[in-house]
Design goal:
Layout (H helix, E strand, L loop, with lengths): L1 H22 L3 E12 L3 E9 L9 H14 L4 H4 E7 L11 E8 L2 H13 L5 E7 L3 H26 L3 E10 L12 E2 L18 E2 L2 E14 L1
Antiparallel strand pairs: 1-9, 2-4, 2-5, 3-4, 6-9, 7-8
Helix pairs in contact: 2-4
Length: 227
């Protein structure tokens, strides 16, 4: 019985050793990064119309007509690009308060935003601000960053393998860091003299500039090494 037990233990040791040898594979492990920029093509402007408490006040309807006329003059499709965001009705205003209306306007570029600032300023509408900006195809740019990251990882693996006189085979493991570390992007907006209250007589026209969204992506991958 003891001999049988020892025989079984020896056979089990051989199986474990063979299994370990089978699982071993020469490989190269690399990281791949990619960085691309996505242009901002959805810029939202906040336009506030407010009754003045001066003697020569201009009511909201007059301001609204002036705003629409100015926007259409610079090529804005007011039916599709402009929406009423908030309104404080003059019927419900208390004594000492002022009626106001807030609109949100979507434009597609910094150049279009500049034209809007200029047109509204000429129409006497000064309360215009940049609310936010984004890219309508952000997910497409993220996907492209992922593809570039894994392609860069493969190129690095090939470079390392070639340096030692070998080549790479199939990729058998890919780690995508989008879950533990989401895609990092920044939507930094620079508006030089963009706000209407900063437009002076000396400045011929407002300058509006936007930094594109920066997308950084990282993956790791393992490739089989071949002789």
């Amino acid at each position: 019985m003891r001999k049988l037990f020892l025989t079984l233990v020896a056979m089990l040791g051989l199986v474990i050793t063979a299994s370990a040898q089978t699982d071993f594979r020469p490989s190269v492990s690399v990281n791949g990064q990619a960085k691309i920029t996505a242009p901002l093509d959805e810029i939202f402007l906040s336009i506030t119309l407010k009754e003045s408490d001066s003697k020569g006040k201009v009511d909201l309807e007059q301001q609204r007509v002036a705003m629409l006329r100015a926007l259409r003059k610079c090529g804005v499709n007011t039916e599709e690009q402009l929406r009423l965001a908030d309104m404080a009705s003059s019927f419900f205003k208390r004594k000492g308060s002022l009626a106001s209306s807030q609109y949100e306007l979507k434009v597609a570029s910094a150049e279009e935003a500049r034209k809007v600032f200029e047109a509204l300023d000429d129409a006497g509408i000064a309360n215009v601000n940049i609310a936010r900006a984004t890219c309508s195809k952000l997910e497409e740019y993220r996907s492209e960053a992922r593809r570039q990251a894994i392609r860069n990882a493969k190129a690095r693996a090939e470079e390392l393998a070639t340096a030692i006189g070998q080549s790479i085979g199939a990729c058998y493991e890919i780690n995508d860091y989008s879950n533990s570390q989401p895609v990092v992007y920044r939507a930094n907006m620079l508006a030089k003299s963009a706000m209407a209250d900063s437009i002076t007589e000396e400045s011929a026209e407002p300058e509006v500039e936007f930094k594109p969204i920066e997308i950084n992506y990282s993956v790791s991958a393992k490739f089989v090494l071949k002789e």
